[in-house]
Amino acid sequence: MRGELDIVSGDQIRAQLYDALATSTSGIELDLSGLGFCDCAGLSVLLELRRRALTQGKTVAIRAADPAFDRLLHLIGAHELFPRPRSRCPQAHAHRAPSSPKLVSLS
After folding, report:
1. CB atoms within 10 A of CB 22
2. Model confidence, pTM
3. Quick one: DSSP state of residue 3?
4. Is 2 helix (H, G, I), strand (E, B) or coil?
């Protein structure tokens, strides 16, 4: 994701996130490193996505995040709700199981 995640963009991206989750086998990883702003409405979209994933036995992980978004998660105590992938080394990718989370990159 790039730019802002707020009430307007959150409503626009929600369906794409839900579709990505539906087509994944075990969950999705979000790259939020290009996210420059996130308000409570945007955060709500991500929390709803996580709740939906849990009902499907899937996960939502944050692969990378803007420092301001990381700080927001820590301030509200939600950083543990969105785990970071364990390993990002090339060897781990070569041996990754077929059920690994789907990487989602939305603009």
Report:
1. 11
2. 0.78
3. E
4. strand
Q: Which of 65, 67, 73, 62 lies closest to 103 in space, CA to CA?
A: 62
DSSP states along 23-79: H-SSEEEEEETEEEEE-HHHHHHHHHHHHHHHHTT-EEEEEEE-HHHHHHHHHHT-G
The one-character DSSP state at 98 is T
pLDDT, tens digit (0-9, with 9 covering 90-100), for 43-72: 999 999 999 999 999 999 999 998 889 999
User: Tokens 């420059």 — which residue?
Assistant: 36
Of 27, 24, 99, 38, residue with least CA distance to 13: 38
* 102-104 vs 27-32, strand pairing mode: parallel
Q: Ramachandran region of residue 100, left (φ > 0), alpha (ψ -120 to 50) or beta?
A: beta
